[in-house]
Amino acid sequence: MEDLVQTISNIVGILLGLVGAVGVGFFIYGAYLYLTASGAPHQMERGKSAMMTALAGIVLAMVAFGIVELVMGAVVDPVVDIDDIPDPTTSLIGTLRG
Q1: What gap in Å lies between CA 18 and CA 24, rounded to an integer?
Q2: What is the pLDDT of residue 90?
Q3: How far apart (Å, rounded) are the C-alpha atoms in residues 31 and 36?
Q4: Which of 33, 55, 56, 84 has the most CB atoms within 10 Å of its CB?
Q5: Domain positions in the chain
Q6: 1 vs 35, more confident
Q7: 78 φψ region: left (φ > 0), alpha (ψ -120 to 50), beta (else)
Q8: Neighbours of 54 (CB within 10 A)
């Protein structure tokens, strides 16, 4: 199980690195478009749009990474131990009746 978790973690890390690199490259491209627009509104808008899209993609990739890590952590090391589930017949209600 640990090998599977490590493999998935490695794949997610590699993909996040690739997405980050593409996102930074796209952001730089948008900045280049914006800076070389020479006052042309259409070119400036294309540059701003490219930068915002790249930023949204990077944020989305980070959120996806966080969700994957959260799920993997919950699957590998669950907070609730199945062996410690209380018996319903001896729960709080049973002790209050007694």
Answers
A1: 10
A2: 65
A3: 8
A4: 33
A5: 2-97
A6: 35
A7: beta
A8: 20
